[in-house]
Amino acid sequence: MNNSLFLKYYLLEIAHFNPKYILMVGILLMSCEDSIFNNSDEIKYVNPADWVELYNPTNESITIGLWVFKDGNDDHIFIIPENQILEPDQYLVLCKDSLAFNDNFPNISNFIGEFDFGLNGGGELVRLFDAEGGTVDEVDYDDSSPWPLEPDGNGPTLELIHPSLDNGLGENWAASDINGGTPGMVNSVYTADSSNSLVSGIVINEINYNSPDE
Prior knowledge:
Elements: H1 3-17, H2 22-44, E1 51-55, E2 62-63, E3 68-70, E4 77-79, E5 85-86, E6 91-95, H3 98-104, E7 111-113, E8 123-129, E9 135-142, E10 158-160, E11 173-175, E12 203-208
Parallel strand pairs: 6-7
Antiparallel strand pairs: 1-6, 1-12, 2-5, 3-4, 3-8, 8-9, 10-11, 10-12
Helix pairs in contact: 1-2
């Protein structure tokens, strides 16, 4: 029996044998309920380790098998499995820890892993290359303005406001409205694009770097 449940049991016993304390016990019981609720909220969200979401905003299926994901270190390499295809308007999450990710997002199946390096909470370059070594996309994110400050280990992720915007600019990103972000689905901060930007291919669309700096 945890401490909160024991306290509730004890207070009910007091009220049973001393009716004049019923009001006081009722107030204390409400406090116990709040404590239990808050504790369950804290336990509910567990850091799923670092991950990056790719998005295909085009009208074409794109074969991304053998593409390479890196951070700023060329020795840190994750190769996307062969024959992997990203369909139009679909997402794929690259994650550091598949088990942790699945524990936190059991309803999300469009993820692969694992890359064996972490994403620095103080800012870092993340890059995506095609099978021939050409740069597909890169984001050099930071944890200072104009980049959003909240994703730095506080629960929210870094979400691109719209996939057609320049994801190299901090002002085009925002902290997710949801702790843990929206991996494998439309971003919580998505807004209709008012620019004339053109999308040419796969984009890095969301980043979770809540793990310790590495």
